[in-house]
Each structure stands twice: as structure tokens, then as C-alpha cells.
């Protein structure tokens, strides 16, 4: 990895790819986690008297100048966090962007408009990349969560300028890289979520790397069905029974203990606070659906966590947005958080709903590291090379 600390940025125009794809409501940033993540790099560059030019995408406007995909509201939010000015240019290249860059003083910060307003971004068009490169002397990628995209601002421009990894990108790679490739053993992975079909590559890679793999969420129903159990009205993917069997077989081959729920909290329908029944995992009633893991499962999971020194977590263990089906996710997360506080566990988490689930459990601060990434976290854990990481690697 080429690290930003090794670059001479003094007085230079530094193009920094950040991920400001943040939750926004009525033009107000509602969760500043990704802005906070970018602060160390921005602050470092300011101190080094670089001219900081921030590049980012927002939403999926598909090359159209859609007003509600503007990054304009992010500039004041970032300025508030830093307690110093952030300029904004209404395009990411061309005369307006060039003038704004020209006006920037050393230590100044400029945010450019949504790169995805131009089709050249997602197409990784060489002319688009060249137009971006014109604005900078040095390129820094600090957007691990967008590094799975081979776009103009993550890959194209990186090939045209000296390219480095920012501090947030380094932090992500250091933590999740260690958890997956050089962990304190034994390692347990907890993978939840609705569908096996979206996590096949993840499960395949994990069984070859970790010592224990717990499969939870509706995904587990597909495994239970593959084992020949009746899953009643539960969500499951009949077409992926063979995939589930192959993953169980691969786990055996690699000596990875695959753990499924022992008991399940079921209801007749998926609605908030319905009547529930907790049953053994192999005895889901025909007229009910599994919506959360039960207390025996949480106990078994706690024992498995006790036996391990590293935890990799992706996905909820039940339908956690709908009460009371957050219970097992919250309990297991609290237990893992407590082990981290005691210094007995290194826990990293990321991907999709995971952060929301851990926030709900109130344990985000206890985990060793929580990735800002959704899809990029998954692809990294699948063992894939991410274009945005490759571009800043020796
Ligand atoms: C994310 O929010 O995970 C990243 O910003 C990537 O966004 P994308 O899935 O629209 O490329």
C-alpha cells in the first residue's frame, strides 16, 4: 500500500476520493459517520499545507444532474464538523471546478459536486478521468467503501497521478485485513442476513479461513431446509439448497465448524409484536415462520465467541428492524462487545445492515473496528481484489 504519509503534499493540489454517500433527509445529513471517517486525512493534509480537493459520489443518479443527488448540503455539514470553511463547486471538472481549485489556498478545502452526475464516472471513461486529473498533482483514495467500484474517480484518475491510500482507507485495510488474513486464532465469523444467494462467495471464502462460522438470519432457513428440516412459512431459498449443502461440505473439508441456530422465535405472520413461539430449529410449525434466533442459540453463540479471539461479523441474526426480532442480534452483539471491553476479543464488523444492527444494540463503541463499507466489505471478505485498493497498492 502506498501510504499518504509518504507523499510530499506541501503546497500541492491533492485530489482526495472520499465516500460522502451519507444518509440525508430534506437536504440535511442525518448520519455523519462517513464524514467523520474522512477527517483524519483532511486534517493531516490541511496541517501539511496541501490544497484539499474532495471528490465523491452521491446516490445513483446514472449520469443525470438530479437535484436531490447534489453533494451541496454536505459542504456545510463537513465545515461544521471541522469548524473551518469548506468551499463547494457545482461540478467535478471543467471551468467552474478549475476556477475553484485555482482560488484554493494551501490548507483550504474544496468539495466538488457528485461525480456520478457524469456518465464517464461509472463508465471509467478515460476523458473523464483525465478531466479530474487536471485538477490535482496528487491523488489520495480514502474511500474504502467505494473501492469495489472501478470508476473514474476510484480507478481511472488514480492511474494518471501519483496515488496514495488515505488514513481511513489504511485503517480499514489494517483492521479487516488482519482479521481475515492474519488473525489471532481461533476466529469465528457470524454471517446473517436474508439470502444465501447474495453471500455465497463470502461463505465459501470464510469456511476456508475461519475456525467457526455461525450462519444466522433467514439464510439459516435455507441451510435447515437443505438438511431436510421443514421450515414452515419461513423465508428461504429452495433453489439454493445445493449451494448450502456444498458450503457445509466445504466447511467440513476445511475443518471449519459450521454452526446453525438451535432454536428459533417464530410467528404466524411478519408484523411488529405478534404472538411468538420459540421452537427447536428442526421443529418449525408448518403454519409459522422463523423470524429470530432463540435464547439457546444466543447461549451457544456466546460459548463459541468465548472460545475465540477474533470475531468477524456481517449481517443481523433475525428480522431486527421489527420488534421483538432484534433480540438475538442485540444480545449476541452485547456479548461480543463485552468480550472486547474485557480485552478478550478482537471484533470487526461491516457490510449492509450490520452497522445499523450494532448501533441498535448500542455496542458500536465496544467493537474493535466497524467498517464504513457495505458492498466493499463483503467483496473484501470474499477475497476479491478491489480496484480502488489496487490503484493505491505498490
Ligand atoms: C456505499 O454506500 O456502499 C458506497 O458509497 C458505494 O455506493 P454504490 O453501491 O452506489 O456504488
Automatic annotation (TrEMBL):
Predominant localisation class: cytoplasm
Xref: SUPFAM superfamilies: Phosphoglycerate kinase (SSF53748)
A Pfam family per the record: PGK
Domain of life assignment: Bacteria
Entry EC no(s): 2.7.2.3
A molecular function GO annotation: phosphoglycerate kinase activity
Binding site for substrate: 19-21, 34, 57-60, 116, 149
InterPro entries referenced in this protein's UniProt entry, alphabetically: Phosphoglycerate_kinase, Phosphoglycerate_kinase_CS, Phosphoglycerate_kinase_N, Phosphoglycerate_kinase_sf
Annotated binding of ATP, by residue: 199, 321, 351-354
Listed pathway(s): Carbohydrate degradation; glycolysis; pyruvate from D-glyceraldehyde 3-phosphate: step 2/5
Localisation per UniProt entry: Cytoplasm
Catalytic activity: (2R)-3-phosphoglycerate + ATP = (2R)-3-phospho-glyceroyl phosphate + ADP
Keywords: ATP-binding, Cytoplasm, Glycolysis, Kinase, Nucleotide-binding, Transferase
Entry similarity comment: Belongs to the phosphoglycerate kinase family.
Quaternary state and interactors: Monomer.
Protein name: Phosphoglycerate kinase
Organism, as annotated: Hyphobacterium lacteum
Source lineage: Bacteria, Pseudomonadati, Pseudomonadota, Alphaproteobacteria, Maricaulales
Gene name of the encoded protein: pgk
